[in-house]
Design a protein that fits this description.
By secondary structure, the chain is of the alpha/beta class. Helix content is 25%, strand content 26%. Strands 3, 5, 6, 9, 10, 17 and 18 form a seven-stranded mixed beta sheet that branches. A hairpin with a 7-residue loop joins β1 (2-8) and β2 (16-22). α4 (170-181) packs across α5. The longest helix is centred in the C-terminal third of the chain and has 13 residues, at 321-333. The two termini are 14 Å apart.
Length: 374
């Protein structure tokens, strides 16, 4: 079948809208009619050739997504046509050592993420006859995709598909960065640096966990103001201002948890984030950079060791998609997690370049691609 998609043909080239040829699903694969795709900063990192994944071009953009199963291949046991699903930023085979030990975010299938190929090493889409994969084995910037059943998760039909798309990546990554990695506790002081589509959910999570003070740091005023509506108690335009607020509010001890969710991580940001921590604090690094070789975490060892600060990496917020996404959906249904409000602007497939300009310029919390189906 022919599908419309936004793709990257080479590093540092602009997004292009193209027509792809899509094959039928093979063994343990499903065909999804994609309705919505979230515009995560990671796709823009890929445009710059980064995120540390290596990989190949051309590449279909998009990893946050939600849609409807239209067909299944032989051996599919998790889904049937008509099921509503969200795509997963990383696959979960369910049988490798990482999946069976509760760390599905590290699934062995993730070895195929850089190229976007299927677990068997082949591709289902072609651009002008050339095989093309989807970012993170997904490619939700196409209106139909064929993916491994390991790369999606069934959701209940009461959950609107536009907000469901956000549960693919941005929401669990931010929420889990506070809950699972930062382990925010009742009464603590938390600083979230960068409150876009990921960081804003760290704010929600920290507030839900009972943090006494949740300080949202962002240079964009509208993001700071929005953070106050979803759980932030204070805001600051710079990390230094946020750090000072943290010291004041904690009576001089400094923040218990600092979560870094900026668009592009630099060594200056990581160093400033460390200075915002107090004794025994947790510094959570969720943000990434364009250049995989960039040394963007450069910290004084004495400050880390003598203050007993834990520096923690956060991949999808330490979430298990099969446990956390349904749980977050329930919190949304109960009115305890805001999702609709996160969608600042909606775009069509031929507006991806403009959409990412809005992301880079700080004009959106989360942009959403809405596929038009006839």
């Amino acid at each position: 079948m022919k599908v419309q998609a936004s793709v990257l043909t080479a590093p540092r080239q602009d997004w292009q809208t193209v027509t792809l040829e899509l094959a039928e699903p093979q063994a343990e694969e499903v065909l999804i009619r994609v309705e919505y795709a979230g515009l995560c900063r990671s796709d823009e990192h890929r445009r710059h050739g980064g995120t540390g994944l290596g990989g190949r071009f051309p590449l279909i953009g998009g990893h946050e997504g939600a849609g409807v199963i239209e067909a299944v291949g032989p051996g599919v046991t998790r889904f049937k046509p008509g099921d509503h699903v969200v795509t997963s930023v990383l696959p979960s085979c369910g049988t490798c050592r990482y999946c069976t030990s509760g760390r599905s975010r590290l699934c062995d299938y993730s070895a195929h993420v850089p190229t976007g190929e299927m677990p068997d090493g082949t591709f289902r889409a072609r651009l002008d006859g050339e095989p093309i994969g989807g970012f993170c084995m997904v490619g939700s910037f196409a209106d139909h995709i064929v993916v491994s059943q390991a790369s999606c998760l069934k959701v209940e039909k009461w959950l609107p598909l536009d907000v469901a798309a956000l549960l693919s990546c941005g929401v669990p990554t931010g929420w889990g960065s506070a809950e699972h990695i930062g382990k925010v506790q009742l009464g603590e002081t938390v600083i979230v640096i960068g409150v876009g589509g990921v960081g804003i959910n760290a704010v929600q999570s920290a507030a839900f966990a009972g943090a006494s003070h949740v300080i949202a740091v962002d240079p964009v005023a509208f993001k700071r103001d929005f953070a106050l509506t979803v759980g932030a108690t204070h805001t600051a335009a710079t990390i230094e201002e946020g750090a000072e607020l943290g010291r004041q509010l904690s009576h001089g001890t400094g923040a218990d948890v600092v979560i870094v969710t900026v668009g592009v991580l630099t060594k200056e940001i990581s160093a400033a984030a460390l200075e915002a921590t107090g004794k025994g604090a947790r510094l959570v690094l969720t943000a990434t950079a364009d250049d995989a070789s960039d040394i963007n975490v450069c910290l004084p060892g004495n400050r880390v060791s003598l203050y007993s600060v834990s520096v923690l990496g956060s991949l999808i917020g330490g979430c298990n998609i099969h446990y956390d996404i349904p749980r977050l959906a329930r919190l949304y249904g109960e009115g305890k997690l805001k999702l609709d409000e996160l969608i600042t602007q909606r775009y069509t497939v031929d507006q991806i370049s403009a959409a990412y300009a809005d992301v880079r310029d700080g004009r959106v919390i989360r942009g959403l691609l809405e596929h038009k189906h006839s």
